[in-house]
Amino acid sequence: MKRSIFFLIIIFFALNFFSLSFAFDSYGLQPLAPNGIFSTFSTESLPEKSFSLEVATERSREPNYYRFSLKGAYGITDRIEFSAAVPFVYNFNGAYDGFEDISFGIKHRFYNEGKHGPSLAYLINASFSTGRDEITSNGGYGAGIIASKRVGPFKGHLNLLYERPGTSRLDEDLLLSAGIELSAAHNFALLAELTTRKKLHNVDETGKYKQMEARFGVRVKTTDSIYTTLGAGFDLESRNPEYRLMLSVTFLTPHEKKNIEKIYEEE
Hints:
By secondary structure, the chain is mainly beta. 4% of the residues lie in helices and 55% in strands. It has one domain (2-252): monomeric porin ompg (Porin, Beta Barrel). The chain is built from 1 helix and 15 strands.
């Protein structure tokens, strides 16, 4: 039990090594509810041959823009999941709008959660550009590791991801994010996330830290197949974005409940 609690605490202390200033934060590959927290992935995945679809909207302040995204995921097996994201930015600082990079990736849970240790998964992702230079990175690729652990009503997730953009004007990034969800009721969860983005090269007078943002919200299981998530993000460095509001609705294909056959022994 002590080791499990230690895991949930250390994921936040690890983020003290990182800190953010980024004129435009690219969307990239994102998890779909309920298998993640905003931008932090969990090791959980959809059941085999199941799929989910999510529509999301976001309002950002400083810089000012709206983002609309369509995301999907498919369970290749109970351990392997394919996902994709198509984001669209509208009215960026009143100047332009267009599609961002379209992202897709594979998540594979290779180690299940134990009594004390977390479950582990790796993520491989790529993207290609379809929009304006101001809001795309001309594609790219990345990979990372995901850890998840449940302790009572809490679930903790830790992501360490590497991203290499397709254009030389942008830097290679190391993303570290941690999230916790609290099951307050059978259909209601409280969410908290801390996410950072760190430059690996080309350090200048601004330093090599690009982003640190805290996000909070709620996720409601509206029906057995629909999740609604509402949240807000706040910059911790008084830089960009100043804050953001997020809303998403996720639709899952209903899966058959397995009938459990009970066997009674005669006395």
